[in-house]
Design a protein that fits this description.
Mean pLDDT: 89
CATH architecture of the largest domain: 3-Layer(aba) Sandwich
CATH class of the largest domain: Alpha Beta
Number of strands: 15
Number of domains: 3
Structural class: alpha/beta
Number of helices: 20
Strand content: 5-15%
Largest sheet: 9 strands, mixed
Low-confidence stretches: none
Distance between the termini: 45 Å
CATH superfamily of the largest domain: Mur-like, catalytic domain
CATH topology of the largest domain: UDP-N-acetylmuramoyl-L-alanine:D-glutamate ligase
Radius of gyration: 27 Å
Shape: globular
Helix content: 40-55%
């Protein structure tokens, strides 16, 4: 019996090593089962291969060793154990994402998942073996049970999901303890001004812009990078919040109805900002109406004396502003409708200049940021600064200190005279149109590099077609990443008269980089618009 337990432990280790890509996908999908199964569907060949190779290795080595030793001896088990572990390691190396943009992070949660998975992967074959040995069955049934044990690795994607399901109560318990501790910390800080930011796009940029402006008057803590989930923000509160902080700015992301409400249960914001509402994450939300309802959960969570800020999109955000009864402001480019607006926007290769206006102020501003969308983001932040009593001089000084957020219309200095605009993070149609306008203003040959947009559900093809139409008069070459996904973009480009011979379809970003190295000259401009996570590569 001990020999079989060791064998199944080795099988479990081999499966975990070979199935690294499955664990990676689970992590990339934030441990959400619907997203994980969508990743499996998108990447069928990649996710089937590790289990298939392990099944082949296990079956072949098991049968060959039995033919050699004629019995289940210790040498049989030792060699088989080595084969399974070593084979799993090499299969995992072969089947993992090469040059992953976001590598598998061995966080405490992943380590716990691996632990649960090891128990599951050991226990299931062992259970079959026990049934095989104890059941009063004929030879045919025993052979069937042996076949099931040998075929165990073939169902590796499902076993990973089962391990995630069994680990969920553990993670829920741990997260709730941390969550309550973070709530306790915030409850003790009655002096802390708490600001929540949500939106279909623009929230990360607004968060960093606001943090920079507020630092002109207040010691401010901003959640780093794209920390916008309950556990991410909980970690920031527990590890980064200091007694000297006067303002806490929290980005609030959402993929499901109720996600913002959960974030507000933690942060309890007194100022809420909605940057945008539109067709984002439709694979989970399904409809824009559900997106709208979820984003507005932030405003509904504000106290009676709270303050709401909206970006004027002449659409959904304007409608939400109109129905909001608490104290509010809206910003945009319309002096007749907006509380804060911009005039005289000018963009160059060095940034932008504009006048920041209210009924009582006209503040000359300059910034390193590019594009109208970034100016709109600054205006949203100015509403909060004015509410908190900052002067026009403080706001202008803060605006001049703003630096581009990484991968969001970021102007990157490049040797050789080429201009690179990095707008690779989480593209959406409105943001993409703004990026295209910036590209259109640039000199030299203008080159667009993009895989298009994802997470748009049934609307993905139609919106990528619109994406292509919008890009048609803004670039001279279009480098499209992914043959299947780029088909709709190509259709949109050609519908608006873009020359087919200037559409270059490539398999990967590395191929696009090689093309650029061969073809780009000094004075040319390259826009990188969106970059897909590893679970979306073709």
């Amino acid at each position: 019996m001990i020999q079989m337990i060791l064998l199944f432990m080795a099988l479990a280790a081999g499966c975990l090593l070979s199935g690294r890509i499955l664990i990676h996908y689970f992590q990339l999908e934030s441990y959400q089962f619907p997203g994980y199964f969508r990743s499996l569907k998108r990447n069928q060949a990649k996710v089937i291969l590790p289990g298939a190779l392990m099944t082949f290795l296990f079956t072949l080595s098991f049968l060959l060793l039995y033919l050699i030793f004629k019995a289940f001896t210790w040498p049989f088990f030792i060699i088989e154990i080595v084969i399974l572990v070593a084979g799993g390691y090499f299969i995992g190396r072969r089947c993992s994402e090469k040059n992953a943009k976001k590598a598998l992070a061995f966080t405490p949660r992943i380590k716990r998942l691996y632990g649960v998975a090891f128990v599951v992967f050991t226990g299931l074959p062992l259970l079959l073996f026990v049934l095989w040995n104890t059941a009063n069955a004929g030879q045919l049934l025993n052979r069937l049970k042996l076949a099931l044990i040998l075929a165990f690795p073939a169902f590796l994607p499902l076993w990973v999901a089962l391990a995630g399901l069994l680990a969920w109560p553990i993670e829920k318990g741990i997260s709730e303890l941390y969550f309550r501790d973070a709530q306790r910390i915030l409850k003790q800080r009655r002096d802390l001004i708490r600001i929540g930011i949500t939106g279909s796009w623009g929230k990360t940029s607004v968060k960093f812009i606001l943090g920079t402006l507020l630092e002109e008057k207040y010691h401010t803590l901003v959640t780093p990078a794209s920390f916008n989930t309950p556990m991410g923000v909980t970690k920031v509160i527990r590890t980064k919040l200091e007694p000297g902080h006067r303002v806490f700015v929290s980005e609030m992301g959402a993929r499901h109805v109720g996600d913002i409400k959960e974030m507000c249960r933690l942060v309890r914001p007194e100022i809420g900002i909605i940057t945008s509402v539109g067709p984002q994450h439709l694979d989970t939300f399904k409809t824009v109406e559900r997106v709208t309802r979820t984003k507005y959960e932030l405003i509904e969570a504000l106290p009676a004396e709270g303050f709401a800020v909206f970006a004027d999109d002449a659409g959904i955000c304007r409608e939400l502003y109109e129905k909001t009864e608490t104290e509010k402001m809206i910003s945009g480019l319309d002096p007749s409708k907006d509380d804060v607006w911009a005039e005289g926007i000018r963009s160059t290769g060095e940034g932008s200049t504009f006048l920041l206006c209210t009924k009582d102020l006209r503040i000359p501003c300059k910034t390193a940021l590019l594009g109208e969308l970034n100016i709109r983001n600054i205006l949203v932040c100015a509403c909060v600064c004015l509410k908190l009593g900052m002067t026009g001089e403080q706001i202008a000084r803060g605006i001049e200190k703003i630096r581009p957020v990484e991968h969001r219309l970021q102007l990157i200095p490049n040797p050789g005279g080429m201009t690179v605009i990095d707008d690779a993070f989480n593209s959406n149609i409105k943001g993409a149109i703004q990026a295209f306008r910036v590209l259109k203003e640039m000199s030299g040959t203008r080159i667009l590099v993009t895989p298009g947009m994802v997470e748009l559900g049934a609307q993905e093809a139609a919106m990528n077609r619109e994406f292509g139409k919008a890009a048609a008069d803004c670039c001279d070459y279009a480098l499209l990443i992914g043959k299947k996904r780029s088909a709709a973009i190509s259709e949109g480009l050609t519908e608006n008269g873009f020359p087919k011979e200037r559409i270059v379809v490539l398999n990967s970003l590395s191929e696009a980089t090689e093309w650029l190295q061969k073809n780009v000259r000094a004075g040319d401009t390259v826009l990188f618009e969106n970059d897909l996570p590893d679970n979306y590569t073709e």
